[in-house]
Amino acid sequence: MVKKVAIITNGGDCPGLNAVIRAIVKTAETHGVECYGYIEGYKGLLENNYIKLESNGSASGLLHRGGTIIGASNSTNLFNYPVEENGQKVYKDMSYKAVENVKQAGFDCIFTLGGDGTQKSARDFTLRGLNIIGVPKTIDNDVAHSEITFGYNTAVSVATEALDRLHSTAESHHRIMTLEVMGRYAGWIALESAIAGGADAAIIPEIPYDINKIVEKVNKRKADGKKFSIIVVSEGAKPKDGEMIVKKTMNDGKGLDNIRLGGIGEKLARDLEELTGMVSRNTVLGYVQRGGTPTAYDRVLSTKYGSKAMELALEGKFNVLVTLKNGKLDSVPLEEVVGNNKEIGARSGGTESTNIKRVTMDDDLVKVARDLDICLGD
Questions:
Q1: Same domain, yes or no: 105 and 184
Q2: Is the domain of 37 the same as that of 89?
C-alpha cells in the first residue's frame, strides 16, 4: 500500500509544473496518502531536502502559477556528481546515497516531473531499487512515447503572439523578421507556431536548411507584392553542411547536455539581408517561452497527468511514464522511454542513442506546412 510519496521537478522550469504538483497532492489526499516535494530536483534527493505538500497549505493556489514551488535543477546528474576531495573537484556516483535517503524517509514512490534527461535518470534510479513514476514535462514536446507534453501549448501560444506582433513591424518597414524559438533537437515549437502565426518559413533541426531556398521564398513574395517576410527558426537548426551554433559550452560533467545554443536566428537574419538586400532583424524569444502562466489547455493537461500519476501509484504500477495516446491517458515502461540509451548515468540529449521525439517528414504538421507553402528550407 502506498502511504507516502514525493515529487521532484527537474530540468528547466515549465508552465504547468505547479498544476501537476497540485493534482498529485489533491489526488493523494483523497486517498489518504501523504505527499512531499524534494527541493531543487535530483539535488534534493542527495541533500535529503524535502517539504510536506498540502492542498490547504504549501500546495494551495498553484493552478495558474508558472514555475515550480519546489525548485528545479538542470545541471545535476547524481550518477556523475561533482564533489571536492583534497581541494580538487572529482566526479562520483552519488546515486546510492540518494537512494538511501529516499528509503530512510519512507517514500513508497517518487514522481519525476521532467523531460528526456530527467526520465533517463528516473529509469536509472529504478535499477537502484526506487519506485518511480515519470510525468513528461518539456516545452520542446520531445519526450518519447508522449503525444504531447505539458508546457508545450503555452510555449507555442507565446511564440504565436510574438509572431502576431512582429508581423506589424515587418509589414510597416518592409523587413524580414526572424524569430528564434527554443527547440534544441526538435522543431515542434517552430513548426506549430509558424502555422499558427502565419509565418513564411519554419526552419527546424530535423531539416538542415538551404539558405537559397529561403531566399527564393523571400524573393517570390517580393515579386508578388509582399514586401516583408516572417521566419521562425529553432535554436537547434543548422544549415546544410553546417553545425548548430553553440553559444557556450559548460563543464557540468558527463551525462549532461553541456552546450548552450543560441545565435542561429541572428545568422539567418544577416545572411538573408546580404543575399536579398532587404533589411532583416532578429528576435530571440528565449526564456519568455517557458515562464509565466500556463494556458487553459496546459492547466487541464497537467492536472490530468498528475491525477493519472497518483492513480498509477495507488495501483502499484511503478517504473513507468504517464503518457497521452490518441487522447487517452496511458503509461509505458521507462525502459522503453530511454530506448537505446541504456548506459547508467548517460542523460544528454542529441545523441544517436537518445530516444527523443523529433519531427518526422510524414507528420501532419509538415504536410500542412507544405500545403500552405511555408518554406522548410529544403
A1: no
A2: yes
User: Which parts of the chain fold into alpha helices (H)?
Assistant: 17-30, 42-47, 95-105, 116-126, 152-173, 188-197, 211-223, 264-276, 296-314, 334-338, 364-371
- Render pLDDT for 297-330 as a digit per residue (tens, 0 to 9): 999 999 999 999 999 999 999 999 999 988 899 9
- Number of domains forming the structure of the chain: 2
Distance of CA 55 to CAs 19, 22, 35, 60, Å? 12, 7, 10, 5
139 and 235 housed in the same domain: no
Q: Could you tell me if 129 and 177 lie in one domain?
A: no
Q: What is the pLDDT of residue 230?
A: 97
Quick one: 84 and 181 in the same domain? Answer: no
Closest CA to 140 of 14, 230, 311: 14
Q: Are 182 and 127 contained in the same domain?
A: no
Collapse the DSSP code of 214 into the 3-class scheme (helix H, G, I; strand E, B; otherwise coil) and give the result: helix
79 within 8 A of 25, measured Cβ to Cβ: no
Q: What average pLDDT does the structure give for the chain?
A: 92
Give tens-digit pLDDT for 187-241: 999 999 999 999 999 999 999 999 999 999 999 999 999 999 999 999 999 999 8
CB within 8 A of 274, min separation 6: which ones? none
Catalytic residues: 140
Q: Hey, what's the cell of 375?
A: 518554406
Write the pLDDT tens digit of every residue in 21-63: 999 999 999 999 999 999 999 999 999 999 999 998 888 888 8
Which domain range does residue 174 map to?
157-290+361-371
CATH (domain of 67): 3.40.50.450
Output Rg (C-alpha) for the chain, integer angstroms: 22
Query: Is it the case that residue 111 has pLDDT exceeding 80?
Result: yes
- Identify whether 376 is part of a domain: no
Q: Are residues 87 and 133 in the same domain?
A: yes
Look at residue 346 and tell me if it is in a domain: no
CA torsion sign for 254, 132, 185, 65 is negative
Distance CA 40, CA 49 (A): 9
Whether pTM > 0.85 for this model: the answer is yes
